């Protein structure tokens, strides 16, 4: 049952951090009957090119003074790569879970490229959990959906990690997990029996 009036939805805005320390804003637009959960995770992305511009200026001076052209080209390439990374990076992820329908995710880029959307039907969702991953000397956490998948007539399990581009901290993922597990847990009990 979808909310029909603004009174059914009580948006909550929380501030968390990503694993890199940048600020993330989580907007919880869950419906009161608890049949619809909607999270919008937003990151304010800024183009930080001060050091590159300073190096570019310094190498331009070196190029004019001593005729050294290679550092100028390398600084220009670094600046272009930073701009491309900024323009194509994901800054907003929306997760919508509708009980008995499915899970819908949408990743929006800043300027360039279409939104990336994925829909997981409700009948293949098994569970949701926080996945702990060790990479190098870091411990990362992912909110992950477990789905059942049928390949060539054989049943298998597929893990679908969420919010990979924004990498929110553990507290943020725990907040979302507590809401999601209440919606998916009754389903989990039926499937695992």
From TrEMBL:
GO biological process: GPI anchor biosynthetic process
Involved pathway(s): Glycolipid biosynthesis; glycosylphosphatidylinositol-anchor biosynthesis
Gene Ontology cellular component list: glycosylphosphatidylinositol-N-acetylglucosaminyltransferase (GPI-GnT) complex
Residue runs in coiled coils: none
A Pfam family that the UniProt record links to this protein: PIG-H
Transmembrane segment boundaries: 45-63, 69-87
Location of the Phosphatidylinositol N-acetylglucosaminyltransferase subunit H conserved domain: 94-158
Highest taxon of source: Eukaryota
Record-stated family: Belongs to the PIGH family.
Protein name: Phosphatidylinositol N-acetylglucosaminyltransferase subunit H conserved domain-containing protein
